[in-house]
Write a structure and sequence with these properties.
The protein is an alpha+beta fold and 684 residues long. It contains 25 helices and 23 strands. The longest helix has 23 residues. It binds 2-(butylsulfanyl)adenosine.
């Protein structure tokens, strides 16, 4: 395509993609499938690669994340970024209303909004294009996090309709609760530390240097304030409606309130309603609606006098911190846990609370024998949120975080960018060994359900299993009669359990059966840091056998689709240890699958000549990969559904016509997971 045509085409594609983005992320009514959206995006990417000087500053391709940011530039806010004074009671809201009425009389109207629990952001648009995004910082100047913010799909890169040439709007970036939960589950699966709550996860994301990683985080943003009456309106409510017309994401959960009764009604509704939101709010914001009245009321150095926030109460009690234990998890992460003088909180007796990590202990400046405030928020484990310094003993000393592992004595390590301390002795530190053994036998890994946490502990404590390779040398005579003493509680006698013949037979046959587990799950079962289920599938699909994977260089690994620097480094590091290679040898000798099952006669027939239609977009495999598997296992691919079709493998965004036809002809519709199970069940 020549350059002139490219300019036109790029304009068309950018506009079209922006409209689809708006439909999906702001209106929640998409008019195009993900697959078609990706196709348009790819087309744009290709044109931009051909003509890099034609990349528009509002191009949707910027959302996948550009070059890493070395440091975030400090930028002075044009309008200071004030915060709101907090209240916790209805009385304080009545007092606020009285203060307001004293200045502006009784002709007052308020706007109530949700108080999003994330981090505040200022978005600056020039000629309608997002040019800068700045964090609060100290309110006077903040960090320029533009490259990270561009990856948040609900923030428009270009405004619609009428907008001022220079425009700034403020809002809150947050993480959705669903997104937070699944992100944490994935992090735990690959041995990364989970985030404590969605707010920490959102602000941690904004501090990341690589926007490509930020693009993977489930972030969202609501906008709620336009400083300096830039839109020349009479009231705040109208300013938000105009902003909404510009394509900016404004919440619908806003109410204009005539008096304090209306305000209390809004508060009470959301104190209950917040449980149904897919994001966290920690209160309600109450703002005087009229802009001229806002001006009349003015601000203090820190807070506007025309707005206030009402924070929902979290149950909180004071108790004494007696001591701190340090727990070492399966990944080697060391978590400090507070032992408290038992206290009643939200219906239960609390004796322990998480202190998360050394930074939190330092920030709170919490010390042994301090009177501490304990809260039960959204998280299950209560947490220490503050210290009553007035009651501090004069001879108290700051807590010195341990520097050696309490389990194995190895010196702890801490990476600059991570909050947790780690015990690096992954192969010889007891909880880490047990964690690795437990992971190995878990359902998604080797699925040896005749072993569990308790039995693993017995095997380990009796010196029978030190690493995952040892499972396959176990013999019935080594297990029979193995005993464990369970200490009696509350003065009761100790009891004993011992392995009987039936248990032993089950254990040995479970181990034996696991030898059939496919290679990808064996690789996942090894517990290599950052090699989760999906990564294991990618790696085994690419390298086909363990020797090829072991011999791959860092550069080669890094070139594999979706394998980044971190994963590549971790794999190289794992295979560099001789004892890991011994484990691989033991497992290979025991007959585990250390390679992909190629189309052997047995494998190639399991789909029995059945015909398949594959349609839609899939999570773990591409459509072509699924089709290749169908052929590999002896099935046939066809493109149209007929009464002869064996299965319809349906991904997301499959057209409705296919589904209707399958329903009509009684063709079973199966998901990607069902399909994998179908292959697995026939193989094992
Ligand atoms: S308005 C000058 N509205 O709560 C008023 N803030 O300290 C600017 N927040 O800094 C803020 N939801 O980070 C406003 N609907 C909302 C809000 C909100 C959350 C945050 C914001 C602010 C802090 C209050």
């Amino acid at each position: 395509m020549n350059k002139e045509d490219a300019i036109l085409k790029i304009d068309i594609l950018v506009d079209e993609l922006q409209q689809h983005n708006y439909n999906y992320y702001i209106l929640s009514t998409p008019t195009i499938s993900n697959y078609d959206f990706d196709r348009l995006l790819k087309e744009l990417e290709q044109l931009e690669a051909e003509y890099p000087d034609l990349v528009r500053p509002d191009s949707p391709t910027l959302r996948v994340g550009g070059e890493p940011t070395k440091y975030f530039a400090n930028v002075v806010h044009k309008y200071p970024m004030l915060s709101l004074s907090n209240t916790y009671s209805e009385d304080e809201i009545l007092e606020f209303d009285t203060r307001v009425r004293k200045v502006i009389g009784d002709n007052v109207e308020y706007v109530c909004e949700l108080k999003y629990d994330g981090l505040s952001i200022g978005l600056i648009y020039k000629n309608g294009i997002l040019v800068q995004a700045i964090t609060r910082g100290d309110g006077i100047q903040g960090d320029d996090v533009t490259n990270n913010v561009r990856t948040i799909k609900s923030i428009p890169l270009k405004l619609k309709g009428n907008y001022p040439r220079d425009f700034e709007i403020r809002g809150e970036i947050f993480m959705t609760i669903d997104g937070f939960n699944s992100m944490n589950a994935e992090r735990e699966e690959v041995g990364e530390q989970a985030f404590a709550n969605p707010r920490n996860a959102a602000s941690g994301s904004m501090k990341m240097q690589d926007p490509k990683e930020v693009a993977q985080r489930p972030l969202d943003c609501y906008l709620y304030y336009i400083p300096g009456n830039q839109l020349d309106v009479t009231n705040h409510y109208n300013s938000l409606q105009l902003a909404s017309k510009m394509g900016l994401k404004i919440s619908k959960n806003i109410a204009v309130c005539k008096n304090t009764e209306d305000i209390f009604e809004f508060i009470n509704d959301w104190a209950v309603g917040r449980k149904n939101l897919n994001y966290e709010i920690d209160g309600i914001v109450i703002k005087v609606n009229s802009i001229s009245q806002q001006k009349q009321l003015g601000s203090t150095a820190k807070n506007p006098r025309w707005a206030i926030s009402y924070k929902f109460k979290t149950e909180r009690v004071e108790t004494i911190l007696k001591s701190i234990d340090y727990q070492v998890g399966r990944t080697g992460a060391v978590t400090p846990v507070a032992n408290l003088v038992p206290v009643q909180l939200a219906g239960t007796v609390v004796k322990r609370a998480s202190l998360h990590n050394a930074d939190i202990i330092k920030t709170l400046d919490v010390r042994i024998d301090d009177h501490v405030m304990v809260e039960k928020g959204g998280e299950i484990i209560p947490k220490i949120v503050g210290v009553n310094f007035e009651k501090r003993l004069s001879d108290s000393r700051p807590v010195k975080f341990i520097d050696a592992c309490p389990e194995c004595g190895t010196s702890l390590t801490k990476k600059m960018e991570e909050a947790a301390h780690y015990c690096p002795n992954e192969d010889h530190c007891p909880p880490q060994i047990k964690g690795k053994l437990e992971h190995f036998i878990s359902r998604k890994a080797m699925n040896i359900d005749s072993l569990g946490e308790g039995k693993i502990e017995m095997l380990y404590d009796n010196n029978l299993v030190h690493n995952v390779g040892d499972f396959y040398s176990l013999k019935p005579e080594m297990l029979i009669g193995l005993e464990k003493v369970i200490p009696g509680k509350d003065g009761k006698k100790d009891s004993k359990i011992s392995f009987q013949a039936k248990t032993v037979v089950n254990i040995i046959s479970g181990i034996e059966k696991s030898k059939q587990v496919p290679f990808a799950r064996v690789l996942f079962a090894l517990g290599i840091r950052f090699v989760g289920e999906t990564v294991a599938k990618k790696l085994t699909g690419h390298y086909r056998n363990i020797t090829a994977l072991k011999n791959a260089s860092f550069e080669e690994l890094n070139e594999v689709d979706e394998i980044g620097v971190r994963i590549a480094e971790s794999i190289i590091n794992w295979f560099s240890k001789p004892e890991h290679n011994d484990i691989i040898e033991k497992l290979s000798n025991a007959g585990l699958n250390m390679e992909m099952v190629e189309s052997s006669d047995e494998a190639s027939n399991i789909l029995d000549g059945k015909s398949f239609v594959v349609s839609g977009v899939f999570e773990n495999y591409s459509r072509d990969e699924i089709k290749a598997l169908i052929e590999q296992y002896g099935g046939k691919n066809t493109s149209t559904i007929s009464s002869k079709t064996g299965y319809l493998v349906a991904g997301s965004n499959m057209g409705p016509a296919k589904k209707q036809k399958a329903d009509k002809l009684g063709v079973p519709m199966i998901s990607e997971d069902d399909f994998m199970k179908l292959i697995d069940s026939k193989k094992i």
